[in-house]
């Protein structure tokens, strides 16, 4: 039996001296209140109300049981209140700082519809890992090696001029082919891609095609990297979505297929699975996963 529901009916009927009024106060039909109280009486082994009068009068046993029933009802109400408050406790979540404010707002709004109240902490990859390790956040979107993540975002080269070919080969940046001073044209790596499995691979391609070391450079921010590209013939290593937002033309790299691979990491419990499952599509939108190349 629902002992909490039965006690709620018992307390409401006793306070109002009427099964009809007590049922209305408990927001249940009168027959349901009567059945619940009858079930409670069977459970406790004695009558709670004297049914020989028109009013709902407590028996001596009912008067003795009423204080305990009230305590149980108050505890149940406190439990429901605490559960609601716990669900509204901000979920500290580290996300890539390349996610736009618009996409993060949509992610936050969708999470609230699913009773998850996010406290978002945008940060570059190393900082997200640090926040999680220090338990300053409950979970973080982290970069993982290729093919190990829940989300994959293609990387390519974005520049001001629209390339004639469908791919951009790094070997075309060699000074002998571009007729420009050595090291003039560069590929800028933004902080989100300053991770070993992306940065080191670009550097290996650079070395294999004969570019100078300075022709691949790591920038301190996406903004500064984009500024370098917008004012020159350099390229930005970026996703199609980032290129479109910056008004740049994007092409995949000819020598290799590069991608950001993301997953959710959490300190404990099922937080990672919960976020990954409930917010999968919204996180994908923030990361630009699945976006087509926009020209």
Automatic annotation (TrEMBL):
InterPro entries: LysR_HTH_N, WH-like_DNA-bd_sf, WH_DNA-bd_sf. SUPFAM superfamilies: Winged helix' DNA-binding domain (SSF46785). It comes from Murinocardiopsis flavida. Coiled coil: none annotated. This is DNA-binding transcriptional LysR family regulator. Keywords: DNA-binding, Transcription, Transcription regulation. Pfam families: HTH_1 (PF00126). Belongs to the LysR transcriptional regulatory family. Residues 1-59 form the HTH lysR-type domain. GO terms for molecular function: DNA-binding transcription factor activity; transcription cis-regulatory region binding.
């Amino acid at each position: 039996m629902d002992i909490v529901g039965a006690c709620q009916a018992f307390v409401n009927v006793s306070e109002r001296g009427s099964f009809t009024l007590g049922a209305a106060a408990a927001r249940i039909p009168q027959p349901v209140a009567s059945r619940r109280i009858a079930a409670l009486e069977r459970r406790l082994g004695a009558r709670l109300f004297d049914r020989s009068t028109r009013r709902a009068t407590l028996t001596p046993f009912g008067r003795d049981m009423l204080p305990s029933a009230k305590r149980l009802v108050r505890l149940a109400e406190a439990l429901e209140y605490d559960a609601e408050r716990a669900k509204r406790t901000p979920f500290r979540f580290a996300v890539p700082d390349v996610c736009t404010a618009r996409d993060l707002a949509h992610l936050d709004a969708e999470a609230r519809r699913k009773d998850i109240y996010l406290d978002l902490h945008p940060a570059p990859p190393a900082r997200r890992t640090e926040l999680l390790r220090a338990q300053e956040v409950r979970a973080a979107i982290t970069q993982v090696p290729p093919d190990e993540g829940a989300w994959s975002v293609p990387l390519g080269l974005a520049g001001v001029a629209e390339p004639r070919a469908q791919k951009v080969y790094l070997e075309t940046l060699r000074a002998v082919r571009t007729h420009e001073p050595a090291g003039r044209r560069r590929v800028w790596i933004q902080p989100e891609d300053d991770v070993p499995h992306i940065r080191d691979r670009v550097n290996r391609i650079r070395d294999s095609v004969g570019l100078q070391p300075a022709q691949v450079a790591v920038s301190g921010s996406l903004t500064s990297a984009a500024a370098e590209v917008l004012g020159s013939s350099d390229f930005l290593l970026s996703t199609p979505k980032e290129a479109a937002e910056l008004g740049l033309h994007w092409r995949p790299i000819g020598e290799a297929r590069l991608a950001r691979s993301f997953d959710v990491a959490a300190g404990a419990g099922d937080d990672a699975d919960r976020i990954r499952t409930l917010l999968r599509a919204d996180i994908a939108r923030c990361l630009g996963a699945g976006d087509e190349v926009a020209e």
